[in-house]
């Protein structure tokens, strides 16, 4: 009410500046419980009249966060050399030591440990509490759900924000990145299985859709992988798909319920698990 008129003028000028282009996208802090959604945006259309600026809310879109952190010192492709994987011990098990932030509740921790138990039950990966190991993951309540790709050496962050990331499938997804797996829709042969609709992908997000030089280990493309993005990931226009399965556009992608059979097979192949 007591707003300095100069201040409101400058806000007005700012809004005029952005009203000429597309809707303004405002990230919402809330996260939904559905596994394949980790971030929402509100599209706000701004209209200007001679006397006032009104904000008209458009549709909310659900986007998946780009959740891979690429270490500056190492090219992610380097992870395809065995240097970026965790080591198998002489009992043929692969220990991945971890520590967990004290910010999590005991419920959060049991959700995290239950997700880890899927790997224990189906593969030779063993997430173990760290004692004095040099290389380990540090599970922290940072701003989002993300991980480095593969073992980077020393302490490496895996972030599960308490509000929005502590869900079974999301935890599996990020832990699988830490084991060295890329997103399925970026694998080398993906153009035979999905069409990327670049026209709906913001330039600054295009890297999330770049093909990677992946080692597919003779396994077929997996629409049901926990590492696959959903159809409208990062879309600039509500409802427009950025990824469309081909030839059958109705095939489901982007599930965040559980590791798929092929996700499990690939872990076992990559790490030489005897199961
Ligand atoms: C993911 O999003 C798609 C498209 O919005 C939806 O159809 C699907 O049910 C969602 N999957 C999960 C696991 O929530
Ligand atoms: C290999 O790792 C497993 C799981 O942590 C452990 O029980 C076992 O003692 C380890 N074997 C050796 C030889 O270190
Ligand atoms: C893994 O196996 C244990 C022991 O059988 C079981 O209690 C646990 O629920 C299983 N975890 C998952 C995620 O299936
Ligand atoms: C960890 O502790 C064990 C037992 O004290 C020791 O044998 C091992 O060398 C230590 N490892 C590292 C990386 O310091
Ligand atoms: C894939 O299959 C080919 C032919 O069957 C074989 O030569 C190759 O070693 C396999 N690669 C892997 C990673 O299993
Ligand atoms: Zn991811």
From TrEMBL:
One GO term (biological process): proteolysis
Cofactor binding mode and count: Binds 1 zinc ion per subunit.
Primary enzyme class: hydrolase
SMART domains documented for this protein: ZnMc
Residues binding Zn(2+): 173, 177, 183
Cofactor requirements of the protein: Zn(2+)
Entry's Gene Ontology molecular function annotations: metalloendopeptidase activity; zinc ion binding
Keyword list, A-Z: Disulfide bond, Hydrolase, Metal-binding, Metalloprotease, Protease, Signal, Zinc, Zymogen
PROSITE patterns: ASTACIN (PS51864)
Residue intervals of the Peptidase M12A domain: 75-274
Signal peptide annotation: none
SUPFAM superfamilies (alphabetical): Metalloproteases ('zincins'), catalytic domain
InterPro entries linked to this entry: MetalloPept_cat_dom_sf, Peptidase_M12A, Peptidase_Metallo
Gene3D superfamilies for the chain: Collagenase (Catalytic Domain)
Domain of life (superkingdom): Eukaryota
Keyword Zinc found: yes
The UniProt record lists the keyword Disulfide bond: yes
Coiled coil: none
This enzyme's EC code(s): 3.4.24.-
Active site (UniProt): 174
Name this protein carries in UniProt: Metalloendopeptidase
Organism: Sinocyclocheilus grahami (Dianchi golden-line fish)
